[in-house]
Amino acid sequence: MMKGLRSLYYREMRIWSRTYWMIVLSLSTPILYILLFGLAMTGLIQGIDYQGKEIDYLLFLLPGMIAMGIHGCGMNACWTLFMDRQMGTLEQILSSPVTRSAYGFGKILSVVTQSFIQVFLILVVGLPLVGKEISIANLPLLLFSAFLGGVCFCSFYMILASIIKTNDLLSTISTLIMMPMMFCSSMFYPLDMIPSTLRYLAYANPMTYIANTLRAGLIGSLSKQVSIELLVLCAFSIALFSASVLSLRRIRI
Amino acid sequence: MRKNSHRVPAIECVNLTKKFGDLTAVDHISFEVKEGEIFGLLGPNGAGKTTTIRMLTTVLPPTEGTAIIAGHDVVKESDRVREKIGVILQLPALDWFLSVYDNFDIYGRIQGVPKKERKERIDYLIKEFGLEEKEKTKIELLSGGLERRVQVARAFIPEHEVLFLDEPTLGLDPQSRLKVWDLVREHSKDGETIVITTHNMDEADALCDRIGIIDQGKIIALDSPKALKDRLGGGDIIKIDVEGDSKYIEQEISKLDRVRNLGGLALQVENADQILPDLTQFIGSKGGKIKNISVRKPTLEDVFIKLTGREIR
After folding, report:
1. Do B140 and B271 lie in a common domain?
2. Which of these, A65, B21, B128, B311, is most buried using a 10 Å CB contact count?
3. B312 within some domain
């Protein structure tokens, strides 16, 4: 079933590493958010109650921005799939001995790898900004959450790109989706600060669970609530992943 | 090498059909290709050549009918089929930001060619196609012709049982075109079956053992190039261009005994030298002004015109 996964993963990573300026660019948005939006908001928000402790807004924002970085990595899959289809590379791959699932898996693994790199880079730049240190003990939860986030976003955007064939429609739709995905979630603020309608929407948004579990990994602990959120995130990942495998099986060139 | 002892056909299509909504792109075509044969699908753009290739390479499921490649059904055993085939597409299908060498290498990996063999084949092909100096250049910096050369050359890294080439020499310089023809012949000698689509008559004539002429989704003739041309009955073809509307002249000429109009004033005659003076005089007497006359042996183009009443492009 996974024939050719290694070759396809190699291809994805090779293409990604050849466009190294992309890594820098995709890192700059979350960092700019911390610098511009974060610092501006610190004036408005004195401190935020998190798991019973009062923390700085910047510190609250940092895991949200890691989630944003992971989202960016997932979005890459949208465009590489689109380009593969446009250039004929997809047809070439689909007529070779590798399987369609391996093609999807290759993309997901590469997005997860990119997400891990993204997490480390944002931490390296972001931690001094918010004046925080972390220990090795933080990493398992952070990385597990980053892994699930990568699977979620990559699957989601592969579904989108396998349905939508034209450039302009794809970019319009993905921009449109990005707004609620970011703002109807706990990326920028705790959910009890927002109106209840938005809050319910946020509970249907995987971004909320990614941001919350990353936050627990970075500054909190694996409480009962976080464990449930982690389970919900697992469910999201499995559902989106299965849907993406189905849509790749049906994809037409 | 892989010559099969029990002579199963390499490709066997029965009533293969593809519909897109109301449009029937491929309409109940049936043909067989023997192992080691070079088979051509010849037809104008939009005739259904690429759709046929897509069904045979398992990328597109047929609406109706079956196709067996190297003993495996393209729908039920598509995984097995893909292990046996190679394809050169019309689209570039290259990785833009990667070097020429990387594109060769990744193709070889995806095709499952082991490392040592892969490297040897790549070095050989890069040299054969004169790409040594471009080895490290990114594809995005290559000219269209060079891109095409990379794409075609890399298809020869693995050995396939059946190789599909969709308009392989489109956009290639004459030298590379001959190179491709040589490689195709060489691989066919080794027992590889080759299917080529083309709208280039000369290519089909020079390369193919047998040709299926395809028009509007149907195969309208299937034979060796020689047999197809022999259907016209030999002799010479005189092609005449007249000024203005040729309809009237065509009508008048159709009344002549020794001349057969294949369509569009491509006239088949027994002996051009003998008839030409009379013919020009005749056209003049009917008020036709001749712009150009050419005399040649019958080609596949004439076969196509004869069959469809149209020129191929």
Report:
1. no
2. A65
3. no
The answer to whether the Cβ–Cβ distance between B93 and A252 falls below 8 Å is no
pLDDT in tens, B174-209: 888 888 898 899 989 989 999 999 888 888 998 999
Note whether residue B56 is domain-resident.
Answer: yes
Range of the domain at B287: 235-297
Question: A88 vs B90: CB contact, 8 Å cut-off?
Answer: yes
In a domain, B304, yes or no: no
Same domain, B92 and B184: yes
DSSP track, B23-43: EEEEEEEEEEE-TT-EEEEE-
What is the tens place of the pLDDT at every residue in B116-168?
999 999 999 999 899 999 999 999 999 888 999 999 999 999 989 999 999 88
**Cα(B142)–Cα(B151) distance, integer angstroms:** 12
Residues of B in contact with A80 (CB under 8 A): none
Cβ atoms of B195 and B10 closer than 8 Å:
no
Cβ contacts (< 8 Å) between A253 and chain B: which residues? 54, 59-60
Q: Is the domain of B36 the same as that of B175?
A: yes
CA–CA distance, A66 with B75 (Å, rounded to integer): 44
Whole-number Å distance between alpha carbons of B49 and B199: 10
Nearest to B109 among A7, A15, A87 (CB): A7
Whole-prediction pTM value? Answer: 0.86
